Every structure is written in C-alpha cells, then in structure tokens.
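User: Design a sequence. Structure:
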C-alpha cells in the first residue's frame, strides 16, 4: 500500500521549508515525503496517525518525523480557523554529519520512528518555530540547527513500533485514506468489515491483509483503540455520564466499555477522569 507522496517545493533562498498553516481542519491526507518534518500544533485537536502509531493530539503537540514516514493529523471536525500549526521541513542532506552535529544526527536517526515531545518544552519550541518562519536563507538554517540541538537534549517518546516497516510497493494510497475517513465518520455506530471492503474496493479478506500490513495491527484492534481514545478524550473534556460516553463512542454495552477501557488504561473510566 502506498501513502500519497507529497512533493515539497523549497524557496531558492532557503532549503528549509516553513509553513504557518491556518485552516478549518488539518487538510493533509495519509502521506509521506523524503524530507524531515517538525510540526507544532498551536491550535486544534484530533487523531495523530504516524506509521502504526495512533493517539489523540491537541494544542502543544510537537512531533519530529523522519523521511518517508507516512503520517496524518486528522481533525475531529471543521470550524473556521480552528486548525493552526507551524511546520518546518528540510532535506536529509542539509545538515552535515560529524563534528558539532553529532548530537543532532543521533536525534535525526531516532526520528525515523517519529518522536513526540510534551510539556512546557514543546510550547517553547513552538514559539521558536514561529520566529523561524519569519526568517529566510542562512538565518533560517542557523535557527533550525540551534532548535534541533536543543531538541536533542530534551526527553522524547518514539511513536512507531521498532518493527514497523512501511511497504511502498503497492499503488493504492487513497484506499487507506478512505478507510480512515470512514472510521472517523462512523465510529459511533456498528461497523462491519464488509463496509470497509466496499469503501476501499477490496474483498473482506484482501482488506484485512491490506490493513494489517499497512498499520501493523488488525482493523478490529485499530477500531477498538480509536473508540477508546475518543472516549478517553470525552471523559476529560466533558462531564457526561460514563454510560453516555460509552454509547456515543460505539460501545454496545457498559460492561464491555469498562472491560476494554481498563485493559488499555489500567484504570476505570471514572479513575481516569479524576486523574
């Protein structure tokens, strides 16, 4: 399966591409590109897909991605100006190896799995990225090096599993986008494998193999995790009763929701809310 290849044009004055993205929702589909990418979410919330990784994102999210690592930030909904991100992208060969760049290169090697930062440091880096977007040429490059040097000293968490390997041999990039969009729009209702097969143009067996190979997990496991993550978000952002949250996120019974929630988060829904 192939994600959509994004071709990034750089300015003649700068090898570091910078984007100040403001939109109703984050528009990029499941895609990849040969450049490194650093993304800071200033405003917005949704689900972050990076390789076989799946997790909610919100304001303050900071991620460093290596080249050709498929990814997508999918907003929960659309609202005028609700999605705002700073993005920096640069070619692999831009930063020389060795010497003063040893720590940065160690960081970039780890970025092949995707890295995420949290806490006050991500907000501080986001502010620095905003300043870099106002620069060009050598000034932007020097600023990027200083920023990466700082990131190399901060704590990060890897996103993809160590055994994740993305297969770009098959030309079917739009199929996964259709499958993920279908889940986002219908996760609160019962979803049958046959519906996904129809949406993607596969047989049920073909779709199951396709999804397992692409996302490094079965579709049923992905759907369960997606529903649990959405439910966890709702627990923290609302005062709705747990039974209502379970129903709104596609769980047909409250005991099933409690059991699956505890398996993933090692606590009950109410304990999670109190934390």
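Assistant: Done.
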């Amino acid at each position: 399966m192939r994600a959509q290849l994004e071709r990034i044009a750089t300015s003649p004055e700068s090898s570091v591409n910078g984007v100040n993205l403001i939109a109703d929702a984050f528009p990029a589909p499941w895609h990849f590109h040969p450049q490194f990418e650093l993304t800071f979410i200033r405003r917005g919330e949704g689900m972050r897909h990076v390789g076989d990784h799946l997790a909610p994102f919100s304001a303050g999210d900071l991620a460093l991605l290596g080249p050709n690592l498929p990814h997508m930030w999918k907003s929960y909904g659309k609202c005028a100006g609700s999605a705002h991100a700073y993005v920096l992208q640069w070619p692999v060969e831009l930063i020389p190896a060795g010497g003063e760049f040893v720590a940065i290169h160690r960081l970039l090697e780890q970025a092949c799995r995707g890295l995420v930062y949290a806490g006050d440091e991500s907000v501080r880096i986001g502010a620095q990225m905003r300043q870099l977007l106002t620069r060009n040429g050598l000034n932007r490059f020097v600023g990027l090096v200083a920023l990466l040097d700082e990131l190399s000293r901060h704590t990060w968490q890897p996103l993809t599993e160590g055994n994740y390997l993305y297969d770009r041999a098959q030309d079917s990039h739009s199929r996964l986008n259709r499958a993920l969009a279908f889940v986002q729009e219908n996760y609160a209702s019962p979803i049958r494998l046959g519906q996904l097969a129809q949406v993607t143009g596969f047989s049920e067996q073909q779709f199951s193999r396709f999804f397992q190979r692409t996302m490094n997990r079965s579709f049923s496991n992905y759907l369960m995790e997606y529903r649990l993550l959405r439910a966890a978000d709702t627990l923290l952002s609302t005062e709705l009763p747990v039974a209502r949250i379970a129903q709104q996120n596609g769980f047909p019974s409250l005991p099933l929701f409690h059991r699956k929630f505890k398996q993933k988060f090692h606590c009950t829904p109410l304990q999670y809310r109190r934390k």
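The domain at 173-274 is CATH 1.10.10.60 (Arc Repressor Mutant, subunit A). The chain has two domains: 4-158, 173-274.
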